[in-house]
């Protein structure tokens, strides 16, 4: 009756009859194109990636590590031997430990999440408790191991109680022992970085100072093979989703992704930095990685593309030494020379927090629109546009000119010499010197 | 929600006669969710048998041609996107089952001709609301009337030649505004909503509010004779007596283009709703097609032996109906620019209008005739309906989602019932005749956000989705020059050297020749396949034409 009547008229607007006849909806393509253009522009408008800066260290930051089990804790080591534990949501330092005298060269957290290891310039490996000691109790490491030479990096096994350090040699340690259970070396001066493969947990890789990357298997007694490049690699990172890929950050401003089965040619060469690349870390999805460079920027690359999709920089951020991608795929942490750790969004225009269903639908739709029309020149122009600081822009142009000049010279030499005498090398083939077994 | 939708739109359409029983049935149905399927199923089964074989679904749309030397990735990408497109078309076609309303029609008795049935008879035979849609407004003082229905079909704008302008909600007969502009009125047009309308007065173009308040007097647009509004581009196209075709963007208020057509007085104008191209008819019998991006016409067609009197284009943009002083009514296929058929009218039709469902109304003098099945290859013999008025007919327009034809003439305005003219199922998110003010606000914002730029107006509206082969080839050429080699070319076959004397020079040459022959064979196979496919397509098309096979899914074919 009257109440039924009122109920209908109250909810009348929700009855939305649809007709998908295409003649009732003309100009499908131009309207979608306009929506894609608007979506690209709005994405640029909302691209504000900087979230917070963690202040407190008194010297440049040399390494950052994530907690194995908790998303909100990270630990960072500075060049004066100080190690700080941070709470990210509150952007506070929970605890400070004077771990070493001299640089803290590496930190790694144990897989169970109860302790972490640090190595430093004072030739020691220390294991600390993740919880802070009680009131009035002095900060003491659980375990200290003295070594013969400086250790430059450390990484922990995914499941067992072993860890590996690198310095003069690559040593595998058992937590209970005070001397390494195995030592690998290949006539090399020193190693700068060592990493366990997160999927194939018995594989290791390390960057050596003879411009090579060496692969090891902990079940073997000798290293597997090495690939020698033209310039030295600073760090490397394994792809957490694909066990056979790793990416190394090289001094010649590029990053190289290798397949361990075919080390003679890199899978991709990632070129966009204008100075030495110092650190690289993969996203937990394995589809993208972030790289930190001496040129005061961090760049995010898709795993299979040769150029970066995103560049983050600030006037206040100086040479970025280390970078990490958070385990929930949302944030990137960068530690730099000027004693600050910065927290950035991995997707610069993403809205943080809980989204309503409508917001989620709109974000998905916009993302798909941009993907659909990504090749149209107007959309591409807007989506690609990033502001770069003046120095970096100038350096980029200079590098481009240098490369153009080299290419032109090579072409001329090829044109004026016997056909076939000057071989055509693709970009990928140019950078590997040798693969040694 | 099938049943729900069905019942509620019934209620919407017959707002004045609320059936209590229907309402109670509505709410009781919601509580019997289990019985839902059993209520719906019998009807669904009947409808589903219409779509007989599953192969019908897969006939939707044309397949994209994979280029000969394509790489694996490209082939995969094309296959995936085609599969998705097919799926989307199928889903859209399946929704047809859920459309709540059906179109009606007029059927006479055994020996009765439908065009002898008068409007008064029809009004008596149908229900009160539909019957009230036949009415006359006696306005004999202010000259013959031009009219325009708003896009949703709720509001009607009438403009008399001697200056009388009024806007009415014609269903409730609610007068929104009425005024006399004290000047000759050449044409009236609604803009994108019922809040603004444009009046082409003797000297300049005026824009008024729905309350009759003058908002703008656009002096740049002078001597305007005819206007057309392009709804998705927010462009008002005006044809003037001085031969200028001008476009005004009503969202930003700027003149987008002013084209000097150099073809004399522009009196006959129509728009193609499919691609927003303006058709102009000229006194030398030609019809020219214009877009705001070009100073010359896109196409010029010779249509009649005398002057073109009126033009109409159907909503799919395939057919154009023209009438001329040579007393002929011609139907053209615009996509191919070919004449389909022509018929002889005793007097040339001064006004033409095409409804949403393809009914053509032609006005000659004081008589309006409505024809059915005009668009197609079969010539039309006799009219579906006819109506005689008092007064010279000056304007003709179909109401968008109603079975109503509005006629403006010398004695005022007449609204005529034409069963089967309007589209029965509207899309509530596009043009909704029953929208609330909130829905209108939301729609207006969304429409403005996706306003198409005038640069995209052309003969093919879907050109953006096509591959630009020319610029790809040019870029490829530049790439070859820059690099010194062709990156897309296949590598020359280098045979592996075998042991045990199998890699002598002769053996290597033999192996190379074998591969070369294989490549040649592949090419020949490809070309033969393409030829057979083309022949098959032609055969199918000719077969279809013979049988005249039409299905409801035809309009989803891209």
From TrEMBL, chain A:
Q: Which Pfam families match?
A: Sof1, WD40
CDD domains hit by this protein: WD40
Question: Which terms in the GO cellular component ontology are assigned?
Answer: Cul4-RING E3 ubiquitin ligase complex; small-subunit processome
Q: Which SUPFAM superfamilies match?
A: WD40 repeat-like
The listed locations are: Nucleus, Nucleolus
* Gene Ontology terms describing biological process: female gamete generation; maturation of SSU-rRNA from tricistronic rRNA transcript (SSU-rRNA, 5.8S rRNA, LSU-rRNA); protein ubiquitination
Family listed: Belongs to the WD repeat DCAF13/WDSOF1 family.
**What is this protein called in UniProt?**
DDB1- and CUL4-associated factor 13
This chain's source organism reads: Cyprinus carpio carpio
Automatic annotation (TrEMBL), chain B:
Task: Recite the UniProt keywords alphabetically.
Answer: Nucleus, Phosphoprotein, Repeat, WD repeat
**Would the keyword Nucleus turn up in this protein's UniProt record?**
yes
Pfam families to which the protein is assigned, alphabetical: BING4CT (PF08149), WD40 (PF00400)
Q: Which residues form the BING4 C-terminal domain?
A: 383-461
Database matches in InterPro entries = BING4_C_dom (IPR012952), WD40/YVTN_repeat-like_dom_sf (IPR015943), WD40_repeat_dom_sf (IPR036322), WD40_rpt (IPR001680), WDR46/Utp7 (IPR040315)
Q: What is the first-listed, main subcellular location in coarse terms?
A: nucleus
- Coiled-coil ranges (or none): none
Q: Where is this region: Disordered?
A: 491-558
Q: Answer yes or no on keyword Phosphoprotein.
A: yes
PANTHER family listed in its UniProt record:
WD REPEAT-CONTAINING PROTEIN 46, WD-REPEAT PROTEIN BING4
* Role description: Scaffold component of the nucleolar structure. Required for localization of DDX21 and NCL to the granular compartment of the nucleolus. Part of the small subunit (SSU) processome, first precursor of the small eukaryotic ribosomal subunit. During the assembly of the SSU processome in the nucleolus, many ribosome biogenesis factors, an RNA chaperone and ribosomal proteins associate with the nascent pre-rRNA and work in concert to generate RNA folding, modifications, rearrangements and cleavage as well as targeted degradation of pre-ribosomal RNA by the RNA exosome.
What name appears for this protein in its UniProt entry?
A: WD repeat-containing protein 46
